[in-house]
Amino acid sequence: MDTLVGILNYLVFFAITAGIYAVLCLGLNIQFGYTGLFNIGIAGFYAVGAYTSALLSGPPPGPLDWRTVGGFQLPWVVGLLGAIIASGIIAFFIGLLTLRLKEDYLAIATIGIAEVIRLILKNEGWLSNTVWGIKHIPSPLHQPIEAGVSSFLKGHPQLSPWLIHFISNAYNWFYLALVLVILGLLYWVSERSIRSPWGRVLRTIREDEAIAAVSGKNVFSFKLQSFVLGAMVMGMAGSLYAHYAKFIDASSFEPLYGTFLIWVMLIAGGSGNSKGAILGAFLIWGIWAGTDFLTGYLALSATRVASLRVIAIAILLELVLLLRPQGLLGEEKAVSKMMGK
Amino acid sequence: MILEARNIKAGYGGVEILHGISMGVDKAEIISIIGPNGAGKSTLMKTILGLLKPTHGKIIFDGHDITGLDPDKIVRRGICYVPQTDNVFPSLTVEENLEMGAFIRKDDFRGRMKEIYGIFPDLKEAKRFRVRKLSGGQRQMVAMARALMLDPQVLLLDEPSMSLSPRLVKLIFEKIVEINKSGVGILMVEQNAREALKLCHRGYVLAMGRNKFEDTGQALLNNEKVGKLYLGG
Amino acid sequence: MSLGAFLALISLTLLRGLGIPGTPFGPLSFGLPMILAFFIALLLTGLAAIIIDRILYLRLRRTGPIVLLVASIGVSFFLRNIIQFIWGPQPQYYFKAIQIARKIPLLGIRIKPDEVFIIIVAALLVIGLHFFLQKTKTGKAMRAASDNMELARVSGIDTEKVIMWTWAIGASLAAAGGILAGIEDKFITPDMGWQMLLPIFAAVILGGIGNPYGAMAGGMIIGLSGEISTAFISTAYKPAVAFVIIVIMLLIKPRGLFGTR
To answer: 0.90 cut: is pTM over it?
Structure first.
């Protein structure tokens, strides 16, 4: 029984991480799946969200920290809103700069901003505490829930060990619920919006910008909206991550974890389909986390196994592109009917 | 007939634009295709050249079935094409544009180039200039010259007079007649319908993706219905 | 780029193993094996690019540029991790001898003989590329296809072959860049290509996308401004300088300094 609870607890942990990735995928889906905007700097928006939220809601710098700013200990919701706004503002400027130009420029600018953000986080100690990162980021409602759990356990000393084990994990269950509620909300909103006239314009832009332009739509403004909204969702994911992990540093937002995996997830699940985005996130994270055990089995060093896993994921991506470019789910019929030519 | 299209149906991504068009070009003949916007004139050209694959019908060239071949194969057989827009390589010089026209020739094509410079003396003078520096009329000549480098039996011209001044339109039409005199069959789509009918041997009127009229150029000009419906009264 | 540098390392090891005399040429810190390795690596990288093109990009070409971009990101992670799998993330050394800069009598600057070699090779590559693009049939066809792919096809140009050549040459040049950088720094790492990415993009935007001469000039400008910037700000921000230049260019002249299209 106790092993079962152990597995269950691991699954909760797994689902929280996958859920956060699913939020990122929904953000990318708004940008790429709906509008065709190519963002290869997801990690940048993700990191900005995480750091903004941590600086707003986190603790003030400790005595050993380099950091001199932040730590306003505001409620988590404020941190979340701050994360959304900060990512949105950065996306707004990047979009303003590049969305009138050919798609290559957006790709270059997003990769550039992500790299610059990473460099800042690595080098500006006053802001980010460099490689020592930001610690002790509070999780929402952590104290009341933990207090409730421990008083409950004190009141019931006769419980069997596995039940205690199970109940002790209550906070993770709560966080999972929080992530899933936010994910559900985002899913609902993005499904509603893609079926709205607004969403139709975005898809027309993706299929043929000229058609959208001749039908009198301000293509640039629609692209900008889509790009900023998507980035806001990515910022939200950053906040969710920071308050769950409780510790962040620049290495959590390297291009592999922050950008590449998310692309693989969206492409594998089905670009342009919110269900596909979520499915892809859980599936690819499942494969990724599932292959972690290989480290113990293969007679190779940990870094070699890590490389092997990236190679496998990269091959998977290319295979999906070659064999099933629409992804597992593909775009839904109601949507593809609109595609015209 | 050197080039013949039989009952062609074609379109873009499931939307059929040509609903069964037939037409032909005889050796060294000038054929004009006229008709309102959306009649399928440019689509027909692209289908003949293999840029679009017809869903139905046959295209016969010089006694061989060329339906569904890729453009580069069709070009090799002797049909060359001048698109309506973007029909030159702007960052290449005039001479390099002509060389690209002769890309598939393995032999010495300098003789052919000389002949073409004979038709377009302006280009000879400008041969070291990058095409993007040339005027609209000169670009149109570069486009035609490029297509002639392979010594085609049939030349497809999609709106050669588009957005040119009346003086240049006249010049381009003169060049077309001159090219034709050298033995090249010409199939052209034109908005400038009256002028086009005047100089062609035969003409086709298309509307809504179907054949409407077919006759000698002069007869079409005199045809009351054609005049009323397609030549603006 | 990393791939080329590492292929050079393999070839270098192989050639040394084969017993080709490794005595350094005159003042240079390397000998014949390095030079041979350079050519072998260029060839192999070009070949690798062609193989990837045939297996992957060829089939994706019809689906549009964005799918190609996604695929190429996958390829970059694939190659980088293959290198990392074989050699690990730590630096690999071409050679370890330290070279002393010598003073050039008239100019009054100090330069290492290896650096003179790098400059000469880079200049030769630039001249070679120029000759290829301007004088050869394939080079002209490449420029034509870059101008107008559709027209190139209806002119009878075998655009597939042109694209293949473009891949091969692009990859070989990247490999050359990686090897030269490896000679300058004495070591190579799997993510050296990633670190050069922003400066490379900046150079291309500066020169105007699709303009090889602009890109060369852009490369000089970006390289110099990156080095000059270290006099004022932390060296850690060298790549950020490239980004700032990208931003400025996009604001004032997105088609590049010499761009015309």
So the answer is: no
